[in-house]
Amino acid sequence: MKRTALSSIVMLAGLLLTGLALAQNPIIYPAKGQSPDQQKQDEFECHQWAVNQTGFDPTKAQAPPSQQASERGGAVRGAAGGALLGLGIGAITGNAGKGAAIGAGSGAVAGGARQAGRNQQQQASNQQAQSNYNANLQQYNRAKAVCMEGRGYTVK
Fold first, then answer.
1. Which of 12, 13, 65, 94 has the fewest CB neighbours in a 10 Å radius?
2. Which uninterrupted H or E stretch holds 105?
3. Prediction pTM value
């Protein structure tokens, strides 16, 4: 279990760093003596062109999803529900305390397992959304770079 959690943390850190690297805007240099005002105009027009070509506007697109902390409390909720169920069963059989204790233990295990499954699904969904965002941004940056290079700028 600890190995899985550590692997997930390492993978998330790698995705975040990759996302930050991909999310950086290209650096644009005037290669033919363009003025700062001309460069601003060209960047604006190339931004519009890149948005039209890719269908992605990083100024309006939703920010990449944060890697949310896993929700906790599934085991506690499961224990509470199990204790109530066990209490009822124990009361019928004559030992409510023992039934509640058994129910709490069973409920905690089941609730923890359900929560872990939900956390994994959320993590996979966040990773896919981050990957899609990065791919769209990378495509947009390539399109803008092509436009700027066509106007005589050096793009790095």
1. 94
2. helix 96-150
3. 0.55
